[in-house]
Every structure is written in structure tokens, then in C-alpha cells.
Design goal:
This protein has ten helices and ten strands. With 311 residues, the chain is an alpha+beta fold. The chain folds into two domains: 206 residues, Lambda Exonuclease, Chain A, CATH 3.90.320; 70 residues, no CATH class. The protein has a five-stranded mixed β-sheet. Strands 1-3-4 form a three-stranded antiparallel β-sheet, covered by helices on one side. The longest helix has 32 residues. The mean pLDDT is 91.
Length: 311
């Protein structure tokens, strides 16, 4: 392994580990910076690095991912015959110091440490992303980032899918992709150092960050943003286009429904269209408030958000 040890992680707490993560770009950050992480955007990573992002609470998916990591590693060792070792350290690229790596494990082949083992758990709905030789793009970039930092020529990624399917796949070092990652991470890290956030990208993650940073408006406060006049015109044009496309969408749906009449299923070429009866129960809040105001007040929960309008 060619990387420097940035910090030993065996004796530090979670909060301290997070503070070290903010000092550079890690493997899970790489895919977000490249725009292929399904859960995180570049803007979110930026605010994490400058210490202004909301704290992420561990959810069930994250919890079981951590619990089952050791199970995945042991199964990989069993199926390959390789010895697997934990590496309780965060590594740093020898040349590009902003690149960090907190690898799950390494594996030993022919008597020496041969590469990185990355362990994943995922749900049944993701199985198509693992078929044949496929590896989800965000995981592939994560592993290439680790190869860049550590200097290894190969890695394996092992995954437990839906709790009942195990796969493992070899990933070879891709120098062209690594050069690309180094460039975009260097550009991103300069933004962090200069406190210049990346552009908004339309993701729900960016929405969440904005809601966290600016949860309430200051009453009567006004500003002028004349430099965004062209952006506003673009927005109005796009909204008009969406309205027209939505009208066309509804016309086509109505045409199909009219032909289906009372049929629940229609076959159109190789596709199947369903128009099913769905029964749902909802609370009539207006009636409840009128007839049982004390119960309504007891269970009514106030929510607060900011409404964006153009006049």
C-alpha cells in the first residue's frame, strides 16, 4: 500500500471520525462529486465539508449495512479462500492530500496484501444493477477512488442483495477514470477551500440542504437579484413547456382510458397497461375539526415551510 496513514480509527469515536472525514474527499464523496450518487449531491458534500450540513441520523438501512458488513466479508473469504483483514485507519493520497480513504478491509492473496475489499448490502429492488458483470456506478467510482489513494491495482466488491443473494466481483484499477476523479475532486476541494459552493443541481438533496440552511424567511426583508433576470425568464419558459407537456400526457392517458372502458388490463404491443380500482381511507379533517374540535386539536401537528412564488 502506497498511501499515508492519515489517522488510526480504532480508538476514536464517531464524532471525531466525522471531523476527520471533513478534512478531505472520501470514497463515498467521489460519486456524489461526479454526480452519480443516488442519495447525495455535490452541494450536500460541500456543506458537509464546511461543517454546515445537518447531522445525518443513522436509519435502519445504515444500521443493518454496518451489522452485516462482517457477514459479507466472512462469506467473501469463504468463497474465495482469501484471507480478509480489517484496516482500522483512514488513508491519505501521498500526492493529492485532499483524497482520503476509509476502506472496509483488504484481502491477502499468495501471501501478500493484494487489494481492497468493499462490502455492501442492498435491497431486492437493486438486483438488476448487479446482474452479469454490472456494478452500480456510485460503488464503482467509490472503489476506484480507494485504488487511487492506496495505490493498489485491484479490488473486490462483495454484496448481499435482498438478504438472500450474494455476489462478489473483481475491479481492476482504471487509470483514465482515476485521473478524472483526481481532477474533479481537486476542483471540488478548491471550492471548499475558497468557500465557493457548487451550482444547484435540481436534486432533492439540494432542496433539503436549502431548507436546512434557510428554514424561515425574515419578515419584510427584501433584496434585489437583477443578475438572475435571465434565469427567471428561463424558469417561466420551462414551466410553460411543462404545462403543455402535462396537457399532452393527460390527453394520451385519457385516450387509452376511453378505449379501455371498464377493462382493468390492456395489452399494447409488448407493454401492459392497468387501470385498477383502488380503495383508500382518508380522514376528513374538515369534518373532524367541526364535529370533534378537541380531538382535532390534540392530533393536529403544525408544519412549517417556505412557499416559493413568482408574481
Amino acid at each position: 500500500m502506497q498511501a499515508n496513514i492519515f489517522i488510526q480509527t480504532s480508538d476514536i469515536g464517531h464524532e471525531e471520525w466525522l471531523s476527520y472525514r471533513r478534512l478531505g474527499c472520501g470514497g463515498s464523496d467521489a460519486a456524489a462529486i461526479a454526480g452519480v450518487n443516488p442519495w447525495k449531491s455535490p452541494i450536500s458534500v460541500y456543506f458537509e465539508k464546511i461543517g454546515e450540513a445537518p447531522e445525518i441520523e443513522e436509519n435502519e438501512r445504515m444500521y443493518w449495512g454496518n451489522v452485516l458488513e462482517d457477514v459479507v466479508a466472512k462469506e467473501f473469504a469463504k468463497r474465495t479462500g482469501f484471507k480478509v483483514q480489517r484496516r482500522n485507519a483512514m488513508y491519505q493520497h501521498k500526492e493529492h492530500e485532499f483524497m482520503l480513504a476509509n476502506v472496509d478491509r483488504v484481502y491477502i492473496k499468495d501471501g501478500h496484501v493484494a487489494g481492497i475489499l468493499e462490502c455492501k448490502t442492498t435491497n431486492e429492488y437493486s438486483k438488476d444493477q448487479w446482474e452479469d458483470d454490472k456494478i452500480p456506478n456510485h460503488y464503482y467510482l467509490q472503489v476506484q477512488h480507494y485504488l487511487a489513494v492506496t495505490g493498489f491495482q485491484e479490488a473486490y466488491i462483495a454484496a448481499l442483495i435482498g438478504g438472500n443473494k450474494f455476489v462478489y466481483k473483481k475491479i481492476n484499477r482504471d487509470e483514465e477514470l482515476i485521473e478524472y476523479l483526481i481532477k474533479i475532486e481537486a476542483d471540488f476541494w478548491k471550492m471548499v477551500q475558497d468557500k465557493t459552493p457548487p451550482a444547484m443541481d435540481g436534486s432533492s438533496d439540494a432542496d433539503n440542504i436549502l431548507s436546512y440552511l434557510y428554514p424561515e424567511s425574515e419578515p419584510e426583508k427584501e433584496i434585489h437579484l437583477d443578475t438572475l433576470e435571465d434565469k427567471l425568464k428561463d424558469l417561466e419558459r420551462i414551466k410553460a413547456d411543462i404545462k403543455e407537456l402535462d396537457k399532452q400526457k393527460k390527453e394520451i392517458e385519457q385516450t387509452i382510458k376511453n378505449e379501455m372502458e371498464d377493462a382493468e388490463i390492456a395489452h399494447i404491443g409488448e407493454r401492459k397497461v392497468t387501470w385498477k380500482t383502488v380503495i383508500s381511507n382518508r380522514i376528513d379533517s374538515k369534518k373532524l375539526k367541526k364535529e370533534k374540535p378537541e380531538i382535532y386539536e390534540q392530533y393536529c401537528k403544525e408544519s412549517k415551510s417556505r412557499r416559493f412564488q413568482i408574481k
